[in-house]
Amino acid sequence: MMVESATETIRTTGSNQNGVSSLSSQSDGGGREGGSNGDANGEISPVDLLHLQQQQALQAARQFLLQQATGLSSPSSNEVKQSPVQVPVSMAMMTPQMITPQQMQQILSPPQLQALLQQQQALMLQQLGSKQLAFQQQLIQMQQLQQQHLLTLQRQGLVNLQPSQGPVAIQSLQQAAMCPTDLQQLWKDVAGVQSTEEAMKHEGLDLSTNSSNSTSFTAAKVSPQIPPHPLANGQHALHTPKRDSAPHEEHTGTHPLYGHGECKWPGCEALCDDMGQFIKHLNNEHALDDRSTAQCRVQMQVVQQLEIQLAKESERLQAMMTHLHMRPSEPKPFNQPVNGPGSPSLRDSDVYPEGLPHPPTSAATPITPLRQGPSVISSSSLHSVGPIRRRNSEKYCTPIASELAQNCEFYKNADVRPPFTYASLIRHAILEAPDHQLTLNEIYNWFTRMFAYFRRNTATWKNAVRHNLSLHKCFVRVENVKGAVWTVDEVEYQKRRPPKMTGSPTLVKNMISGLGFGSLNANYQAALAESSLSLLNSPTLVSNSSAASLNMPHVGHDDVSSTVEQVNSNGSCSPGLSPQQYGHQIHVKEEPAELEEDSRPVSLMATITPTLERDMEEDLPTEELE
DNA sequence: GGCCTTGTAAACAACG
DNA sequence: CCGTTGTTTACAAGGC
Q1: Rounded Cα distance, A87 and A79, in Å
Q2: How far is the CA of A467 from the C1' of B11 (A)?
Q3: Which regions of the protein are recorded as binding DNA (predicted)?
Q4: E-strand spans in A355-449?
Q5: Of all protein residues, which has its CA closest to the C1' atom of B3?
Q6: Is the CB of A461 under 7 A from strand B?
Q7: Is the pTM of this model over 0.90?
Q8: How many degrees, rounded to 5, is the angle at CA A256 between CA A255 and CA A259?
Q9: DSSP A486
Q10: Does residue A421 lie within 7 Å of nucleic acid chain B, judged by its CB?
């Protein structure tokens, strides 16, 4: 499929953030090393080459455009006369010119760049009046120029883009969705690049004009002089994926860009004690300048991509269900763009439940687990669903390690309940600690640090944490010099969830039989969610998923964070637990009684989302590195 | 329907 | 006394 190529290229973006996505790198709001583009290993890949070439192409194109654009007046002629060269703001907003090619290159992968150009062109077509025809043509020329360049490159074997990809570049881009961490990284890159290149100024481009003719520019109206409310609108217009429904933000303030004491401007996370300080910060740091507009624009792209991705994944789900002889229910929600005009984009909470076969046999069949899935698309309207009795994790799916690694930023910012049990989370927190031990308070902190969700209702979940610590034998309290710390007894933990058969036919049978009557069992739901998530979040893996996979027999495990220990056992550096312990844990099977209980078809995931396996392999090392 | 897991709530004790 | 930590019990919801 086309996904292959697209994701292949997008991977470059993904790889850049490996450092970021690693759980260890929770530089909580602290200094972000923006712009470290990951090409630490000084070799120049074809992709790098492409970037370079693209950069040149862009520059050339821009030069060309600028020369002629200067003659044009913007529709609203609102240019600010700061820079020698004035560019219609719509253009500034809509084209890569608003940031330097270097910046573009840094924040967007080649196909993204290309797609951007095309999308911008499309937008231009919509938004510019007929007067702008000439301008459009120039834009097209620019794009063509770039495409030609790409073509040339490809013919030279430097690029693996399909020649025909020009027209469908957007599609490629769509297919290669960015995961939350991607997005976050994107922001950081933009921010980082901007900050470092601030002095360079925008090569004669001044974007700090306002434009009333560009609808999308409303987003960019996040400007100092505008009070919070319009800002809120702006933010909603952007459909920020990680900032979903705001109702729960009241306690943190009334500003959608402000929450939990920090600035929620993408990639910012600056700490602000109060709203006043935040506003000040907003005005100072996020004024209407090229950086902000760039970020807004990227955010638009982000939202767009997420929406598109959602649609695609929905389609995929539809196809899967159809294939599995499920009643497709109403295909409607899948085929139509998720975000109706004007509707908050991330309406997935509507889409998914709808997309899933409505439980015909039992109205009680819960769909919430899926909705609470880690998927980005399920970020909205989740917090108010009330007590969650079941995580969809634990049993049937999501590897905490990989899930968290990939969606670290997402969970940090989105008020979405992580689809893991407390026990899993606690364990993960502890194992993530340098010496595999944490005090209660440190566990608390980990929760709040890692999950925006756990910044609310502290009494409740803290109680739950304590409850879990006490309840589960796998959590061992160790008296310490400075108090007590909690550790994980892996053996005990694994007892609770012994590895079962992986991708066994039984499972499949179960699944299918479960599907037979349309009542989705939780496993399947989770599988879908998981599958969707992994695809959504790690385009990197998509291309490999089919090939990789299935060669990790024993990991039909629900909570794949267990793999962390596996790795640890190899690499071994776990003061908390001996390597032996770790070595044993996986296959330890004692207390048959307990094992019995565990007829969880966890391995389903291995069948459905082989991606995860690779996933784990990938992010484990990063964990180890911390 | 019973059992199990999980989440939530709450009571309670120990401790600083 | 108060807050934190830790244990325990009870109950509800959901899955098997």
Answers
A1: 7
A2: 13
A3: 417-490
A4: none
A5: A597
A6: yes
A7: no
A8: 80
A9: E
A10: yes
